[in-house]
């Protein structure tokens, strides 16, 4: 399924040169500072407080972010993560893409009880369903079905996650 993105064409220099026509420089600086604090913070409740209160993200109860997770600096409010999910070390979650002739925005929705492995990149406009597992080092460029085990670049389904009371 295609990513759910809204496209905004630009004229003149590439879209990234025009970033401050779309987002306030003060918002960018404030978000950058709080994201850096959260990246290095070892205290999970404090990280979630920063994400919710300072960045406007929707973060479920008991969700855990590993060290060095990088959330979208310009549009973190477009990121939603359900309860009891784990976002692995050094994962990047993007809600924007600035290209040559356009920029694109898309909400990222990560369900409940989702495991995202280390060094994963999640692109804008994707949904990762409840109970899914994303292998380390993956690039999530399309939606992930609930309960799917996916990995790689390009992303592909590797299997299904076994239910807790199911034998493998």
Automatic annotation (TrEMBL):
Superkingdom of the organism of origin: Bacteria
GO molecular function: transferase activity
A Pfam family hit: Hexapep_2
Keywords: Repeat, Transferase
Protein name per its UniProtKB record: Acetyltransferase
Species annotation: Paenibacillus ihbetae
